[in-house]
Amino acid sequence: MIRWLIVVVLALLLMSGLTQWLRRFGFGRLPGDFEFRAFGREWQLPIGSTVVLSLIAALIARWI
Prior knowledge:
Elements: H1 2-17, H2 19-23, E1 33-38, E2 41-46, H3 47-63
Antiparallel strand pairs: 1-2
Protein name: DUF2905 domain-containing protein
InterPro entries: DUF2905
Transmembrane segments: 43-61
């Protein structure tokens, strides 16, 4: 379970760094991705995209 937690955290960091590039491919706009404005700033919680990217990373890791 700790491995999955690490994968999800790493995917969240990856998503935050590559958000603009990944939006071209539809990530960040999946069901479960939340955007809201609070305290004069726009916040994003890409939960659905993180799960998809985690599954892709797990499949790649399994093949290697």
